[in-house]
Write the structure tokens for this entry.
Amino acid sequence: MKAKRRAVTATSGTSRAKRGPAAHRAPAVAPGPARPRTPSLPTLQGGPGPSSRRAGVAAADVDLRVDLGRGLVLPNPILVASGTFGYGTEYSEVVDVDRLGGICCKGTTLKARIGNPTPRVTETPAGMLNSIGLQNPGVDAVIAKYAEIWATWKVPVIVNVAGESVHDYVEVVRRLDGVPGIAGIELNISCPNVGAGGLQFAIDAGAAADVTAAVRRATDMPLLVKLSPNVADIRPIARAIADAGADALTAINTLSGIAVAPGRERPLLGNIYGGLSGPAVKPVALRVVYEAAQVVTIPVVAIGGVMELGDVLDFLAVGAVAVQVGTAIFADPTLPVRLVDELAAECGRRGLTSYRELIGTALPKKPARPSVKGAEYRP
Ligand SMILES: Cc1cc2nc3c(=O)[nH]c(=O)nc-3n(C[C@H](O)[C@H](O)[C@H](O)COP(=O)(O)O)c2cc1C
């Protein structure tokens, strides 16, 4: 591992204490409404308490910092989602990227990928389907082209990593490890594991834990693992990933779907299958975050259909400590920064000195009994 690494944010300093996976273990049995950890910041849900409310708090005085563990302290809880903001550089002329809480860059693989056949994108009611297929120049080119630029930014850049085997993930992460300008790793485990006959890492608790643990052994960098919604019950998978040493969960990736071509003779997308995103997926994302936040003690970052401040507040209420904005960026790249301002103003209006009081307000007040039947949805 390379020794030198830049400070994650102005507030975080350079320290990244080495902690083994054991330090990240979530209890084996669902502990009920867990409280996501913020090691060096005040307590989260219900944390600061009524004493932190006072009349007339200026937006600039609201504490928006988020501690995702291992020294990764975001300046605020509004990030941009992987695949929707490129490498950040594409938008740096139109958006003050340093005002963002974090940037999750495009999915990065060991070797360059040309992506899926076209068409790759289509609009759907309240959303879109994409089958980009992880087009990217490969990890070495990403480091060579972007890391130096990222190192000059204040905003933490989290590299989204994808692969087709545990070896792929570990090798990509080894190359990213310690590179100045890279603040953390987000594992996109919604990929087929070629070695396991195409089984997706994200839909199997054992496979998800294996890849998380292998990456954990390969790096001390902050490690976020992204959950797929395409499962019957997210809870055993969320727990397995937390137990395997992830510092935070991000949820959700896209929902698997297809569209039909105009002549109705074939599916529309070149890859047949695509990932559904946008406002249409928000209720699913809310459910996944709500369930995951109750069974792990690591922070959960929400993604899925964020379009306005109300969406951010909803995700915080079900236990997310931060949100990522994705599809909405295609319509308005300035939205994420505006949400930062709107969240601070909303906290100020409510007399809150910290946004953290908004987290988890809609979680059950009593510990939930672990379900033996899977997801609680009963049609
Ligand atoms: C065009 C496009 C490309 C994406 N590429 C990636 C990717 O490379 N890695 C990843 O983990 N997620 C990727 N995603 C998923 C998003 O990061 C996000 O999880 C999902 O779109 C849900 O959020 P949204 O509804 O706000 O878009 C992509 C989404 C879109 C729309």
Helices lie at 139-151, 166-176, 205-218, 235-243, 282-293, 309-317, 328-331, 335-349. Residues 1-40, 42-51 have pLDDT under 50 and may be disordered.
